[in-house]
Each structure stands twice: as C-alpha cells, then as structure tokens.
Amino acid sequence: MTNPAERGPAFSAEDSLLSAQIEELRPALKGYVLSLLPDRDACEDVVQETCLFLWDRRGEFEHGSNFRAWAFKAAWFKVLTHRREMQRQKLVSFSEDMLERISRAAEEFSEQADRRLAALQHCVSSLPAESQQLLRLRYLDKLSLTAHAKGLGVKPNQIQKNLSRIRIALRQCIEKHLPSLHE
Q1: What is the pLDDT of residue 165?
Q2: What is the DSSP letter of 3?
Q3: Using alpha carbons only, how large is the chain's radius of gyration in Å?
C-alpha cells in the first residue's frame, strides 16, 4: 500500500472546478473541432487531446480570464498539429488561412448557440405551465399530436395551432433577449 504523500497532491477544489469546466465545455469543443476536421474519429481524438492538454496545463490557466477562449485556442493548436500530420500523408483539403477563417466562424457560432440556448431556457420557463407541458409531451416525450389530442378530447389541428403559437411566442421572446443576433 502506498503512502498518501507518494500518490501526489490531493485533488483540490480548483482542480474540481477545472474538471467541471472542461466537461461542460466538451460539447462546444467537439462542435468547434468538427467544424475544422472532416473526420469524426480525428475530431474525437483532437478533443480528447485538448482536454488532456487543458488538464495537464491547468497551472498555466490564469483564474479570472476567459476559460472558453483558452480552451478553444488549445483546440486550435491541436487541430493544426493534426492537420500537419495529415499534410505529411497528403490528406489536407483546406489551406491554413481557410482553416483559420472556419475556426473564427465556428467559435463565434458556438458562443451564439450558448446564448441562444440560455435565452430559450429562460423563455420556456416563463411560459404558462400548460404550454410547457405541451412542449414536453411533443419534444421530450415525442408524443404524437394525434395521441395527445385524443387524450384531451380535441382535434389534432388544435394542438398544432397551440404549438405554433408557443413557437411564435418563444421566437419573439428569444429575439427580445438576443437583439444583437438579429441586427
């Protein structure tokens, strides 16, 4: 049995926080890397390498700075490394300049998607309970409109009209909360 001192330093609260940040950001990193690499397997490898890099270099992260930007920059360099390996095998399809343009667009899109999702969650929570339930039945439980209408004793087109009104209300609410995305 090993001595606790021989196992290395304990998992600190900062380490726990960083681990949670990495896991929370992982889907966005995956989307970002996938926008730059055509191969899903290569994408998974690069995301994994990026997460390991972030963990190994956690001491270099300046607390209070933008973790997302740091992680995306690390992913960018991992993509470039992968791209160079592909170049050696004569498998590269984009120039580095084009890859950089795609990278900027993907990073911007990811940030917008996060803001849109937060706005959607806020807007759904502000809907009346019946509207929230209808959305849950339709999109989470994937209940057919016909089955739901039959259960309520109404015509399916009435349910469809209600869903349409809810979608319009959600769109208006999101646009109100995110005006900069529509300018």
Answers
A1: 93
A2: -
A3: 23
DSSP per residue, 101-143: HHHHHHHHHHHHHHHHHHHHHHHHHTS-HHHHHHHIIIIIS--
Report how far residue 123's alpha carbon sits from residue 160's, in angstroms, rounded to the nearest whole number.
20
Q: Report the residue count for the chain.
A: 183
- Per domain, the residue ranges of the chain are 13-106, 126-183
Rounded to an integer, what distance in angstroms lies between the CA atom of residue 183 and that of residue 115?
15
Please state which CATH class domain 126-183 belongs to: mainly alpha
**CATH level 2 (architecture), domain 13-106:** Orthogonal Bundle (1.10)
Indicate yes or no: pTM above 0.90.
Answer: no
Give the SS3 label for residue 22.
helix
pLDDT, residue 5, reads 40
CB 61 within 8 A of CB 70: yes
pLDDT band at 180 (very low <50, low <70, confident <90, very high): low
